[in-house]
Amino acid sequence: MAEAEKFMGSDNVEDILTKIENKSLKIESLIKQYKPIEAIKTALEGYPPQDERCKFANWIGVRKALMAIKDVEGILRSLNPQYYDILMKYVYRGLSTGDRTTCDQCLKIHEKLTEKAGFGCILRSLADTVNTI
């Protein structure tokens, strides 16, 4: 979670966008290396600040990682439970896009994540209005 500290430690939006872009490149590299577990972990690290450009830039990297998931159950087994609520927030972000491919993938993840983490995961992700994505 050191990445979260990096985002919060800088007030300059351009610096934060550069860090998010570097993170996105790392995600792409991990996907190309067939390491989806590492890609999703990297994607879920750190909340971007409340600036909308930062949120959108971060979403692009997370979406790439989400779309690369083939074995949802395997990914969830490998993820630390601390990431479940964050993942659920991004699943809802993906569902809000209206893009059919993204929504289909997010629904698959939502089903398996709810089975694994329970309904509390849904409630916590919807109720958290401080850490929005």
UniProtKB/TrEMBL annotation:
One GO term of the biological process aspect: regulation of actin filament polymerization
Pfam families linked to this entry: P16-Arc
SUPFAM superfamilies (UniProt xref): Arp2/3 complex 16 kDa subunit ARPC5
Coarse class of the protein's main subcellular location: other
Alphabetized UniProt keyword annotations: Cell projection, Cytoplasm, Cytoskeleton
Keyword Cytoplasm: yes
Subcellular location: Cell projection; Cytoplasm, Cytoskeleton
Cytoplasm in keyword set: yes
Cellular-component GO terms for this entry: Arp2/3 protein complex; cell projection; cortical cytoskeleton
Family listed: Belongs to the ARPC5 family.
The protein's name: Actin-related protein 2/3 complex subunit 5
Protein species of origin: Gossypium hirsutum (Upland cotton)
